Amino acid sequence: MVTNVLIPAIKKMKSKDEQIKTFETIEGTFALQAKVTTLATGITGFYMFYALDAWERYLDYRFWWIHAMTLVWIIFSLILYVLEPLVLHKVFKKYAHENPAKTFRIMHRMHWVLLLVSLITTAGAVAGSHAWFWVK
Q1: pTM for the full predicted model
Q2: Nearest to 23 by CA among 106, 119, 93, 127
Q3: Which of 47, 60, 40 is nearest to 128 (CA)?
Q4: How far is CA 19 from CA 4, 25, 81, 92, 106, in A?
Q5: Which has the least CB within 10 A, 72, 104, 128, 134?
């Protein structure tokens, strides 16, 4: 959510070098936190499934939100651990120097998409865990 406020503020800066430097500084500050919390989320989720022996829930369509949570976790993990260090950082620097307005606009949209998917997943998980939407 911070990024959805941060990116518009950075886009308003006059100098493209200042935009890039500010974004990379702030992003670097939160990168470790994002990696640690994403790893902790994966470990605790796996442990809960293991401890509850809940693997069969992946076979039941009523638990679609579990699939969605897993998918969101996979997306965030791929971005944080694979794509960002190997690809996205280089691509960002290249395109941010060429066309910072377009680069930040695309990045802003992608953050909104990830936020929306995460919110739908969270709402589904709350509803599903309270059996609000399904009748046996």
Answers
A1: 0.80
A2: 93
A3: 60
A4: 15, 10, 24, 12, 15
A5: 134
